[in-house]
Design a protein that fits this description.
It is a single chain. This protein has 13 helices and 14 strands. By secondary structure, it is of the alpha/beta class. The strands form 4 sheets. It has a 7-stranded mixed beta sheet with strand order 1-9-8-5-4-2-3, sandwiched between helices. A 3-stranded antiparallel beta sheet has the order 7-6-12, with no helix packed on it. It binds pyridoxal-5'-phosphate (PLP). Residues 59-61, 85-86, 88-89, 131, 157, 159-160, 181, 183, 193, 195 line the site of pyridoxal-5'-phosphate. The site of pyridoxal-5'-phosphate (PLP) has 15 residues, from helix 4 and helix 5.
Length: 361
C-alpha cells in the first residue's frame, strides 16, 4: 500500500458532518460575504493565537500584501526577507512596489539568521518579514531586538506555523502583524482559499478590514485604495469547526515527528529541537546529500515525499534577473531537503514503515 504525502479527503473526513451542517446553515441564511461566520471566526482565531484582533482575508498572500500596504512605505523601500522562503513572501514585497533584501537562514533551523538581519539594514530598510518555516518559530527575541534598534516594522509570515510558539508565546503575536494562510494543506486548512491578519492594535485591524473591502469603513464611502480580499462565510464556518481541533491536529503531527526524531538513523539531518520552541511540523524535513536518490528509493518502496522547495527564489524564472546575490545556504537547503509524510491522516504505523525503509537506505 502506498503511503501518500497528504490526503485531503482523509484529512477532512472527521469534520464532514459538521461541514455539511455549516454549509446548509449558510444556504438557509442566504448570506455569503462578511457576515456572522466571518466575525465569529475572527474572534475565535484571535483568541486562539493570543493576538487580540483579526481580519479574515482571501488568502495568505493577500495577508502579506495587505500588511505591507497598511504601512504605505515609499516606493523603493527595502524589506528584509529570508532567502529560502516560499515565493509568496517575496511576491508580496514586489506587489507593493518595494524591494526585497534576501537574508540567509541559519543552516540548522532553516529560519532567518538574526545576526545577518542587522548587516542587511540600510537607510531604506523599513521592515522585516520573518517566516516561521516548516512550523518552527524564528528566534523572535533576537528579531524583535534588532527591529527595535533599527526602527523596523515586523511582519510575521505564519502560513506554516498556526499554533507554533517561541518561549510560550504564539507566532504572529510578536511583530506588528501576523499573516496566516488557510490553504487546504496548512495545519489549519479551509476547503478552498483563505487567510488572515492578526494584530494587537484594534485600529490596525479596522484599517485592514476597510482595505480588504475596497477601502471603505462604511459602504460606498471609500477611505483607502483598497482591494477585494474577503474571507467568505462558508470557509469561515468550516474554519471555526476545524479550529477546535487545531491543537489536536498539531499534537498528532508532533507525535509523528517525535517518532521520526527518535527512529531515524543519524545519516539524515533532522530538524533541531530546543525547549524555547514549540514546533507544529507543518512540514517534517530531513536533509541528505543524495536527496534525489533517496526520494526515488522511497517512491519505489511506495512512500511519497515532497521537496520544500526544489528551486530557491533567486533561481526562479520570475526573479532571477532581479535577485542577483549569492545565497549558498539557501541553495544547500534546496539541494538536500526532503519532506516526509507527517499529516493528521497518517498513523504511527505508517510512520514506523517510513522509518524502517529510510533506515535501510
Ligand atoms: C502557503 C504559504 C503562503 C501563501 O498562502 P496562500 O494562502 O497560498 O496565498 C505564504 N507563505 C508561506 C510560507 C506559505 O507556506
Amino acid at each position: 500500500m502506498m503511503i501518500e504525502y497528504e490526503n485531503l479527503f482523509l484529512l477532512n473526513q472527521q469534520f464532514m458532518e459538521g461541514y455539511k451542517e455549516s454549509f446548509s446553515d449558510s444556504l438557509d441564511k442566504g448570506w455569503f460575504v462578511l457576515g456572522d461566520k466571518v466575525s465569529t471566526f475572527e474572534t475565535e482565531f484571535a483568541a486562539y493565537c493570543g493576538g487580540k484582533y483579526c481580519a479574515g482575508l482571501a488568502s495568505g498572500l493577500d495577508a502579506l500584501v495587505l500588511a505591507l500596504k497598511y504601512f504605505d512605505f515609499p516606493e523603493g523601500s527595502e524589506v528584509i526577507v529570508p532567502s529560502n522562503t516560499y515565493i509568496a513572501t517575496i511576491l508580496a514585497i514586489y506587489n507593493n512596489g518595494l524591494v526585497p533584501v534576501l537574508v540567509e537562514p541559519d543552516i540548522h533551523t532553516y529560519n532567518i539568521d538574526p545576526l545577518k538581519i542587522e548587516a542587511a539594514v540600510t537607510s531604506k530598510t523599513k521592515a522585516v518579514m520573518v517566516v516561521h518555516l516548516y512550523g518552527k518559530s524564528c528566534d523572535m527575541a533576537a528579531v524583535m531586538q534588532i527591529a527595535d534598534l533599527n526602527g523596523l516594522r515586523v511582519i510575521e509570515d505564519c502560513a506554516q506555523a498556526h499554533g507554533a510558539s517561541f518561549r510560550g508565546k504564539k507566532t504572529g503575536t510578536f511583530g506588528d502583524f501576523g499573516a496566516f494562510s488557510f490553504y487546504p494543506t496548512k495545519n489549519l486548512g479551509a476547503l478552498g482559499d483563505g487567510g488572515a491578519l492578526i494584530a494587537s492594535e484594534p485600529g490596525m485591524i479596522a484599517k485592514i478590514k476597510a482595505m480588504r473591502n475596497y477601502g471603505c469603513h462604511e459602504k460606498y464611502y471609500n477611505n483607502y485604495i483598497g482591494v477585494n480580499s474577503r474571507l467568505d462565510e462558508i470557509q469561515a464556518g468550516f474554519l471555526s469547526l476545524k479550529l477546535e481541533f487545531l491543537d489536536q491536529i498539531n499534537a498528532h503531527k508532533q507525535k509523528l515527528a517525535k517518532l521520526y526524531q527518535e527512529g531515524l538513523k543519524d545519516d539524515f539531518i533532522k530538524p533541531v529541537i530546543h525547549p524555547d520552541y514549540e514546533d507544529v511540523y507543518h512540514i517534517y524535513t530531513v536533509r541528505h546529500r543524495e536527496r534525489d536518490r533517496l526520494r526515488d528509493y522511497l517512491l519505489k518502496n511506495n512512500i511519497k515525499t515532497e521537496i520544500h522547495y526544489p528551486v530557491p527564489p533567486h533561481h526562479q524564472q520570475a526573479l532571477k534577473t532581479r535577485l542577483k546575490g549569492a545565497y549558498p545556504i539557501s541553495e544547500a537547503i534546496h539541494q538536500t531537503t526532503l519532506s516526509l509524510p507527517v499529516s493528521y491522516c497518517h498513523t504511527p504505523m505508517q510512520i514506523a514503515r517510513v522509518i524502517d525503509v529510510m533506515n535501510a537506505f
